[in-house]
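Input for the complex:
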Amino acid sequence: MKLTTRFFLILMAIAVVPLLLSVFWNIRQYNSTVSSFYDLHKGISRLTAANVDEWVSGTNRNLAFLYEIEHPLQTKKVDEIAMIHQVTRINSEIVSLSLLSKEDKEIFFLQSEKVMADRPLAAYQTPLINQVRESGTVAPGEVLCLKTHAYFPLAYPLVDGRVVVFHFSLDKLFEKLNAQKTGQTGEVFLTDTKGKPLACQKLQRANFDAEALLKLFRAGGRTGTVQGLQVDGEPYAGSYSAVEKLNWVAISMQSENELYGKQRRSIIIFAVFAVIIFGITLVVVSLISNQIILPITNMSNGVKRFLKEQHLDEVIPAQGWPEVKNLVMVLNRMMLELQAYRAFQLNQIVEEKNKAQALIDTITDGVILVDDKGRLIYSNQTALSLLGIPKLSADVVLPRSIKNEVFFNEFTAILASKEKFLKSEVESPLPAVANAAPVMKSYRVIANQFLLATLRRPGRVVILRDITNEKELEKAKEDFFHMITHDMRAPLSTIQGYVEMLMRKVAPNPGTDRYFKSMLYSSRRLRGMIDDILNTTKLQRGTMTLVLAQISANELITRVSDQHEPVATPKSIKMVVETSPQDPQFYGDNTLLERVITNLVGNSLKFTPGGGTITFGTSQDAENVFFWVQDTGPGIPEEKREAIFEKYSQMEEHKSQGFGLGLAMCRMTVELHKGRIWVESEVGKGSKFTFTVSKKLAPEPVAPPPPKNA
Amino acid sequence: MPNMLIIDDNSEFKTMISCYFTDQGYKVELADNGREGLAKAKLFKPDIILLDVMMPDIGGIEVLKELQTYDETSKIPVIVITGTYFDNNMSELFKQESNCKFFLSKTNELADLEKKISDILKKR
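Predicted:
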C-alpha cells in the first residue's frame, strides 16, 4: 500500500472516524430525546384533557338544581330565584346565568360584576338557544371571549320551554392549563375538533394553522403526536389528547427548536466539524505527500536508478520541507561523490591494467590467465600465436580453442589438475613458414594457481617459454663435453694398457711395484671419471642400457676394495670387507655397479681423515641385495643428505675436489637397477651410504648360441 | 700358439694390443681397414678376430657380415671393440650376427679382454 494512502488512512482513523462516531451517537441521543419529549407532552395533554373533563364534570354537577326546578316536589314550592342565587354563590365559576322564556325573553339574569359586558352574555348565544330548544338536550356552546375573559356557555332547556343559559368562567381553567406549559415556548391549550384554538386562551403564539392541526387529528386517534406544526414560522412538536366530555382537544406542544434545537445544532456542528477535519486531513495528507513522501519516493527511485545504471543521469529534485530537502541534497552529493570515486577507481584500474598489459606484452614468453572454467582472462600476443588462437574474444575457451595439438593436450592436463604448481616440457612444431618444413621447438610450460579477486575461484597463470635454445645449448654443452672426454679415452686406454704390460714384463720389485700400482690406479681413476661423465649423459637421456651379467656380491665388494688399496694404505685408512655368508647372487651391470661402489669409496677416501676405517658390506632380503660403504669421516648434515644426490651439487667446502657428478650418477644407475640409494650419517662420526639392487633383474633371453664346434 | 687378427684403423690401439698379446704368446696379425682385414682373414684363418666398428670405407658391421659369408671365415669368433660411443641398438645389431661373441668398449681393461679371449678359445 502506498505511503500516502497509509498516511491518509491513519489520519482518518485518528481524527475523522471518532468525529463521525460521535455524530452518530448524537443522532441516536437525539432520537431518544425526541421520543422522550413526545412522551412528556403526551402526558401533559392527557392530563390537560383529564383536567378539562373533570372541570366539565364539576360544571355538570352545578346543573343538578335544575332538576329540582324542572321537577319540583309536590310538597315544596320552589323558589327558583333563591336557588339560583344560592347556586351562584356556591359556585363562583358561574359568572352569568340567564333564564329565558319560551319566547326568548329574559325572565331573569344574574351576572357577575367581573364580567365586563353591557348585556347579559346570553345575548350572544342565540344560535345555541335555538339549538337546544330544538334538540331538547343540554348543550355547550362555543367559548366566548370578551375583553380577554373566556366564558363557557351552556344552555339547558327546561321542560316547560324555558331555557337556562349558563356562562362559566374559563379563566381559572385556562390559567391552570396554561401553567402547565413547558419551557419557554411551550403551549398548553385547547382547540375544537377542527383545530381552531378556543378563544381567549392566553397563548403566546396566536398563529396556529388550524388546517394543519386538523390533519394531525385525522392522522392520529384520540391521542396523537403533533409534529412540525408551523407556528409563527417555527415548527412545534408535542402531543394532543381529545377531551372526553366536550368536542375539544387538549394540545401540549413546544417549539421544536427549544426541544431539540441544541441537539440538532450539536449534530450539525459535529458533522460540519467532521467534514472540516476530513478536509483538513486531505490537505495535510496532500501536504505531507508533496513535502515528504514524494521526495522520499524520488530519493528511493533516484538511488535505485543510480545503482542500476552505475552513473548519475540527473540529480534527485530537491523539494519538500527543509529537513527533507536537506536529506535530498545530501543524498545527491553522496551519489555524485560515489560516482566520482568510481570513476577514479576505474581510471586507476584502467591505468594498472594498461601497465600490466604493457609489461606482459613486452615479455617474450607467452603469458595466459585463465579462470577455472577455461575462459581466457588475459593472454599476450606470443601466447595467442603459440596456441594458434587468432585473437582474444569472449568465446575463447581453453582448451577447446587451442589449435595446436601439443598445447591442447598440455592445457587439458593443466586445467584438470588440482596441483597448485605444475611444470612440464613439451615439443611442438613451430607454426610453419610457407613452404618450409615446420621446425620442432621445445617449450617449458609452467602453471600456477591463483585466486581470482572478485570471484574467489581458482584461476591459473600459464607461462610458455621457448627453451629450444636453452636445450640446444645444454645439448651442445653435453655433446662437447662428451666429445672431448670420449677422445680422451683412446690415449688413456693406451696408457693403461702399457702399464699393465709393464707390470707383467718388469720383475716384481718393491720400488717399482709401488709406482706401477699407483699409475694403474690413477689411470683407472681417470678412466672412471670419464666413464662417469659419459654414463651420466646416457643415463640422463635415458639411453643407457644395462649389460646384465650374473654377479657375486662378495666378489664385487672385494674387487673394489682391493682396487683402492694403493690409496688407502698411505693414508693409514683401514679397509674392512664384510662379506655376506650367503654371498647374494644377482643380475646386474658389473661395470656400472663397480662405478657406483668406486664412487662411494672414492668419496670416503677423500674425506676420511688418516687413521680412519672404511667398511664394505653386503646383505640381502627377499627382493633386494644391499650394499654399503661406511666411513669414519666428518659426516653429512641432515639438510644436505638429499641434496648431495643432485647433479652438480657439492658441499661448499669441497668445491675444489671433483665435479660433483658422482653421487648423481650413482643414483641414476641404482634407480636403473630398480633400487634406492641413501645415506645415514652422524656429523663428526661418519657416514654410511647404502644402495639396493633389485633381484628381479634378468637379462633378455638371447638367441640360441651358435653351435660350439668350429 | 693361437692366431689373432686385429682389424682397426687406430694404429696406437693395434700396436698396444699386439704387444700385449704377443707377450702372452699369441701370434698377431694386423689390418688397417676392412678390405685388408677380410683378405688377411681368409689368408691366415686366425683363431680370433678383434674388429673395430668405426672404419673408413667398409664399416665394422659390413666386415662382420662379409666374414660370415665366406666359408673359411664364417666360423671365426669375432670380438667387436669400439672406441666410440655405443648404445644398445648398436650392440644388439652386432650381437645378432652369429660370429660376434662380444661387443666391448676399448676402455675395458686388457686383462678383462684377455680373459674373454681365452674363454672363447677354450670353448673351441
